[in-house]
Each structure stands twice: as C-alpha cells, then as structure tokens.
Amino acid sequence: MSTSMREDARALLAEARDAYAGDATALSVLDELDRRLAEPLRLALAGMVKAGKSTLLNAMLGEQIAPTDAGECTKVVTWYRYSMTPTITLHLRTGETRRMPVRRDDGRLVLDLGDTAAEDVSWIDVGWPLDALKSVILIDTPGIASLSASTSARAATFLAPEESASGADAVVYLLRHLHPSDVKFLEAFRDTAAGAAQTICAVSVLSRADEIGSGRIDSLLSAGKVARRYARDSSLASLLLGVIPVAGLLAEGARTLREREYAAFRELAALERADRERLLVSADRFVRDTTLTTLGADERTALLERFGIFGVRLATALIRGGAHSSSDLSRELVEQSGLIPLQQFVRDQFRTREATLKVRGVLLGLERLIDERPVAGAVVIRAGIERLSAGAHALRELSLLATARAEGLPLAGPDAAQAVAIIGGDGTPATTRLGLPEDAGAEAVRQRALAQLDHWRRLSDSPLTDRAAVAVCRVVIRSLEAIVSEIPEGGGVRPVADVVTPGGPGDRSGERADEQSERDESALSGEHGKERLAALADRDDL
Fold first, then answer.
1. N or C, which terminus of the chain has less Cβ within 10 Å?
2. Nearest partner of 509 among 303, 257, 168, judged by Cα
3. Is 226 helix (H, G, I), strand (E, B) or coil?
4. Virtual CA dihedral for 105, 305, 44, 39, nearest 10 degrees?
5. What percent of the chain has pLDDT over 90?
6. Residue 161 in contact with residue 192, Cβ under 8 Å?
7. Which region holds residue 47: left if phi is over 0, alpha if psi is between -120 and 50, else beta?
8. What are the helix (H) ranges across 21-92?
9. Is-contact 456 476, C-beta < 8 A?
C-alpha cells in the first residue's frame, strides 16, 4: 500500500511537471518534492537552546558527529544523511554550494563556517557512512526561543513556515521544563505539518532526565513520573503522541564507550564503599585532587563531561552488579538511558507510517505551488491531491489519535481504549494493536482481528450509535481490515521495519565511521531494566 501511495504521488508530480513545463521556478519546486518523496523519513530534533538536541542525535547515531558546543554551526539547520563517503556541503542563501573539509577533533566532527556568517547559510548537508542513516534523515535544528531572534527564526522557518509545508516529516521535540514557547512551537508545527487534518507528527523527549533526580542512579524513574504528567497536560495532549524520558548524555557516552573509560569505571567500582561515596557525593568533589584513586583530575573531568555524575554513579553500580566487560556495560547503560524506548517509538509511530507522512508533505507542497502559481490543469492536479489525501488511512489514524488525546472519543470506556490501541496509539505492529503477545502466530492474529471486526461492525450498524461514534468505528474497521489483508496466505504476519538499535563500545569508536556497527538490543526489556535499576538504587546510597 505504501508503495502504491508513493507511485500515485509520483504520477501526480509528473502531471504537474507537464502543466508547468517552461516555468523554471515551478519545476525547481517539483524537483525538490520529487527528492523528498524518494528520500527516507525526515526526522527533525527540535527544542529550546541547550535542550540537548545534538547530544541526543549523536546517541541515536551511535557516533559523535554533531557538534555540541555553542559555535556558529549550531545556529544553522544541519542535515545528516547516508553517504558512501563522508561529505560536508554548505548551502548558502544565495543558492551557491560550498564543500567543507571533513575534520574531526577527538572523534567529534568539526563544522567550521570560517568567515561565513550563520545568517548567510541556508543549511548544512552532512553525508556519513552509517547504516542508521539509510532508513532516516536526522535533522538538527537551532534552539527556539534563543536570545538571537535570527537563530530562532531559522528553526521556525524550516520546521513551521507560515507559507509552505514543514521541511520535516516528523519531529522529536526536547523538553526540559514546560514553557509557553514549547507549546507555541508545537502548535505551529502541528498546523503546518498536518494542515486541516490536525495530524500529530511529534513526540517529546524529556531531555537531560538524569538531572530531575539530582543525578541519583534511580533518576530515570523520577523522570518517568514527570514525563507521564506532561503527557496528560491539557496544553500538550493534542500536540504530542507521547513524552519519553531520556538521559541524552548517558546515551551518547554509552554508545561510544571506550575501553579506557571502562577501565576507569572498573577502578572506581573497586574502591571501598566509604571512599567511593565520598568521591561521588557531587560533581565538584569528583574532580577535586584526591588520593582515593589513581585516576587523575583530568581523567575524572573527562568522565564527567562524557557521562555526567549520573552516568559515573550508574556505571560503577552496574559494574559491581555484574557488568564484566565494556560491551556489557555499554549495553546496560543504553538500556537505562531511555534511548531504546525512543527508538522503538520512532519505529512504531513514524517509520511504519513513513510513506503516508512523506506523501502528505509532498501534497501540501504541491497544493501551495498551485495556490501561488495558478496554471491550466490545476483543477485536475487538485483533484489528485484530494484523492490521495482521502486514501491515506494512516493520516486518519493519527488525526483520530489527536482527537482521542485532546478530547477523548465518543465511545464507552472499554471501546474507547480499544479503539486507540487498534489505530496504533500504543504502536503499529498488528500484535500490539490487537493486544496480543509479540510472538503470536498468524492464525491467532487473524482470529482476533476477525473477532474485533465483528464487534466494531455491529457497533457501527447499531441504531443507538451516534454519528460521531460511527465515524470512529469506520476508522477502526479500516485499520482491522488492513491487519487482515497483511496476513499472507499460509504465512505469518509481515514483519515491520527494524529498530535502529544501539551499537557496542570501541576504543575511540567515534573516530571511524566505517567501523560502526548496529547491534541487536531486542533482548533488552524495559520492565527488567526498571527492576534492576530499583535494585541498584536500594543497594547504593547515591
């Protein structure tokens, strides 16, 4: 179905190209829409200044690419996409492009604008040979509500322009503390990305979650409570599909863990408990001159910069709890950071709807072109836009999810909860929609789907069901019919897209892009991680 949608959109763009033959400006716009349709999902990271966007991006990639300092390059929209060889291209507002040297400092990519002012740069395009970038384009944006109005404007112009479709298909929005500027931006992005459909294409990350619990090793548990409260907030409920706590600095450090760092953590873990607690009581105490450890002040400062006091405390606790190698420690730190739930959310809610979200962005761009540059044949093109929009069931699902979060559904309690699950509120795999175990067989999925179809058809046909509820029933029925159609004859349920999972540690792992690997983290269980974290917290005063 997704392939058909792309092909139909591509055919519509070809019709528009014929209609605008000879109009160089319009053809340039159509070229860009064609490229957007062919690209992977565009996932932008947005948030206020110092929210941790670049750090989280590095964690998602498993390599220290994005600069995290406050240099000029952080004031420019920067794209990270797959390329066979590393390349950096500067796109100026004049239309000129300029290749930049590929240079790294202690593993981190250096983006130096030189004599070029950030105001003169439209965007930076970074091509990098990472498998994680084959399925998604990650876009780092300047902070909103910046002291520099021009910096904030660059993020708003790209993500929520007033006169065109958003440049992103979906957004990961980083929150630290709920601020009116956060709500204002999310409202603008929803309206721009979704048009009149009011489709939610954003998830929020409660960033720097370890700071909520003052760096205690159970800080993520406290952050989870705050995230759930934000998710229920009336001002956010209709703008986000969820709020996920993530300790970005820990996730970045864990995915690029070096052997010498593991050795340092092992030495700290071997200290007597009283000495270890005196050393780790605060960040200031940790970096002071001391005779408690052979680690120098510079080494401890480097650990603090890479992992934060939360990460240092947690790493030593995990080593004492049985992490006997750098690979073990990396895996467990990633699990505790909150990164895996975020990756799974992106897969389940955005990547599985990739074709629909991309086609929607293309149709909005095409509609804007017709409005701005009327042409003979526009009626036919507009009819094609309406036809494709009407056939995009995934958009109706997201629109209904927005209604469910903001207003609730016009159904009885159990039916309302079941409707949200079936339209993908908890994830889009068929087993998740139907409330079945992940390993449920094809026949079990089929039988559950058929039983649910019977229930929802009866509810839809009942004379006691009002018109608003019937509209909800129709969306649910269409989702169930899609599940049944996805079960091939004599086979299992078709697999969904893979999760981009964390890679393992390596000495200076950020130095060589071609040495990065994506490792299977499917065995990590969120509930198991919570139980272990709680147990570690009980055993450790810090």
1. N
2. 257
3. helix
4. 40
5. 48
6. yes
7. left
8. 24-38, 53-61
9. yes
